[in-house]
Design brief:
- The protein is of the alpha/beta class.
- The protein has 26 helices and 16 strands.
- The structure holds phosphoenolpyruvate and magnesium ion.
- The site of phosphoenolpyruvate has 11 residues, from strand 10 and helix 20.
């Protein structure tokens, strides 16, 4: 048995068999397959090589046609190598005799051949080494593609273990087959975590080396409460966790009863509980969890699940569906927040050196006006069908906001000229995600109708901690006094100018922070739908003066450790059985 610590994303525990999703990596980890899977592995290898050869032959034909037969000869070395038995046979033999994965055997063989070429010294051989490494990547990417195909074909639910997933890959996971997830990379609020969090399965990210430690088919436990993955658990651990799973399910049944109750404090203050969604189809689940509307629709996911940007019609259909499903309930749609870890790096000719501080979000939109306008047109057309609010992300200067509003006005003028219906009084607001916006909130408050505080980014930019980097995950916390002070300042400015403020970062869904949020004056929280019942339970157990006292006390602390301890103590006082009841509560160690 081995236990690996990571960062928990979704609470819950699951026990199951591992499915290791391969990646094209710098270092391909050593993995073996079961004896009965060796034939399959050889088939995967042979087919991947055949496909790579077919691809190279197609390239050769294309080059021969456009540039002539001489340049096309470049491909002969590549094709010849992929048909060379002295290279391929030892790979097959290793898979057959040592039961290593085809990926491992391929990487070992190709990379050692490339090293031999490099050692020969001359430029010609160095070029050959690069060609061999290119072939290595080609064959590996075919093998990885087959690993994903294999995942699509499995019929028994599995726990996926992977080095990393992009937000787009995460969005395409099929929850009917995947009961849990563990990754080497990522942080609590990386976009991949947010998407898998929405799937409602237990997830632990940032485990650093889980994908090399776990073998396909290993029994593993994903402990999404403590942030642990246990590989090949012993009987005692297995039975402790099995008991916990049963207890957790009973607890979920209790929480389900919260769904029909009003989110109201003991002294009668209603706290609006809205949902964060990535697709309109999530609205059904949001309402089933007791959500009162959508506080954050992350529309950029429409781009992530397609090969090309969505058309105006595709945007419109998605918003129309959301409006219909919400049936008059509030809907705040954020304009696309592409960039950083989402989409643009893959499209860029030259990736940015520091994408989190680069051309992302509203900055990207303002430099890609035709694309931005397509979305705004669809949004305005949808405004004729029901109540929507438009929210601009990552605003850091007043000029960005003014430009965005001008473009929206342009779009409205165009629609008027075309005789297309829209709601001219549509409400606009901004996300407060950058310290500059938080510090200038009173300026922005005079130009918009609402704020939504995006603590996921606000934390990363205030504390200079990459939200997706597992190596600094322990430094990333909403309990840092600097973050709390900024949130407080934003709420104060919004109050002064009488505009609404809500919070939509992941801490809105953390029961630990609920009292503090209420105490700071927030009356609308937008959170991952599955967390609504947990947060509602806290709301119903507290009163506003008690939360205000807590906020004042927390405001006097100088460290996140003191803040967290205080929040834990208070939560334990109001709901004694919630926090203390993890899988380790009856463990001796
Ligand atoms: C945030 O930054 O807090 C937020 C809600 O936006 P996202 O997580 O999509 O960046
Ligand atoms: Mg953000």
């Amino acid at each position: 048995m081995k236990s690996i610590t990571g960062t928990p994303v979704t609470p819950g525990v699951v026990i199951g068999r591992a499915f290791v999703l391969e990646e094209v990596l710098q270092r391909v980890p050593y993995h073996t397959v079961k004896q009965e899977d060796i034939a399959d592995e050889l088939w995967r290898f042979n087919t991947s090589v055949e496909e790579a050869v077919a691809e190279l032959e197609a390239d050769r034909a294309r080059v021969a046609e456009s540039l002539g037969p001489e340049p096309a000869k470049i491909f002969e070395f590549h094709i010849g190598l992929l048909q060379d038995r002295t290279l391929l046979e030892p790979i097959r033999k290793r898979v057959e005799e040592e039961a290593v994965t085809a990926s491992y055997a391929v990487a070992e063989a190709f990379r050692s051949l490339a090293d031999q070429f490099k050692e020969m010294g001359s430029e010609v051989f160095r070029q050959k080494a690069n060609d061999v490494l290119d072939l290595d990547r080609r064959v590996l990417s075919k093998l990885v593609g087959r690993s994903r195909d294999r995942l699509a074909k499995i019929d028994e639910p599995v726990i996926v273990v992977s080095h990393d997933l992009t937000p787009a890959q995460a969005a395409s996971l099929d929850v009917r087959k995947i009961i849990g997830l563990a990754t080497d990379a990522g942080g609590r609020t990386s976009h991949t975590s947010i998407v898998v969090g929405a799937l409602g399965i237990p997830v632990v990210v940032g485990c650093q080396r889980i994908s090399t430690e776990v073998e396909d088919g290993d029994r593993i436990i994903i402990d999404g409460i403590e942030g642990k993955v246990i590989i090949q658990p012993d009987d005692e651990t297995l039975s402790r966790y099995s008991e916990f799973v049963a207890r957790f399910e009973r607890e979920q049944a209790v929480l389900k009863r919260q769904v029909s109750l009003e989110p109201i404090t003991r002294d009668g203050t209603h706290i609006n509980l809205m949902g964060n969604i990535e697709f309109a189809a999530e609205i059904e689940g949001l309402l089933a969890n007791g959500g009162e509307g959508v506080g954050l629709f992350r529309t950029e996911f429409l781009y992530l699940t397609r090969g090309k940007p969505p058309s105006e019609e595709e945007h419109f259909e998605e918003y129309k569906q959301a409006i219909e499903l919400l049936d008059g309930r509030p809907l705040t749609i954020r304009t696309m927040d592409l960039g950083a870890d989402k989409y643009t790096q893959q499209q860029a000719e030259e990736p940015e050196r520091n994408p989190m501080l680069g051309l992302r979000s509203i900055r990207y939109c303002l430099q890609n006006l035709p694309m931005f306008k397509i979305q705004l047109r669809a949004l305005m057309r949808a405004s004729a069908l029901g109540p929507i609010r438009i929210m601009f992300p990552l605003i850091s200067t007043a000029m960005e906001l003014r430009k965005s509003k001008m473009i929206l006005q342009d779009v409205m003028d165009e629609l008027t000229d075309e005789g297309i219906d829209f709601d001219a009084s549509v409400v606009t607001g901004i996300m407060i995600e950058v310290p500059s916006a938080a510090l200038m909130a009173s300026v922005f408050a005079q130009e918009v109708s609402f704020f939504s505080i995006g603590t996921n980014d606000l934390i990363q930019y205030t504390l200079a901690v990459d939200r997706g980097n597992e190596r600094v995950a322990s430094l990333y916390t909403g309990a840092h006094p600097a973050v709390i002070q900024l949130v407080k300042a934003v709420i104060r400015s919004a109050k002064k100018f009488n505009i609404e403020t809500s919070i939509c970062g992941e801490i809105a869904g953390e029961a630990l922070f609920t009292m503090l949020m209420i105490g700071l004056g927030l009356r609308t929280l937008s959170l991952v739908p599955s967390q609504i019942p947990h947060v509602k339970r806290v709301i119903r157990a507290v009163d506003v003066p008690q939360c205000e006292r807590l906020a004042r006390k927390v405001g006097s602390f100088d460290s996140e450790r003191k803040v967290l301890k205080c929040l834990r103590d208070e939560l334990e006082k109001v709901l004694p059985d919630v926090e203390a009841d993890g899988p380790h509560s009856n463990s001796s160690g």
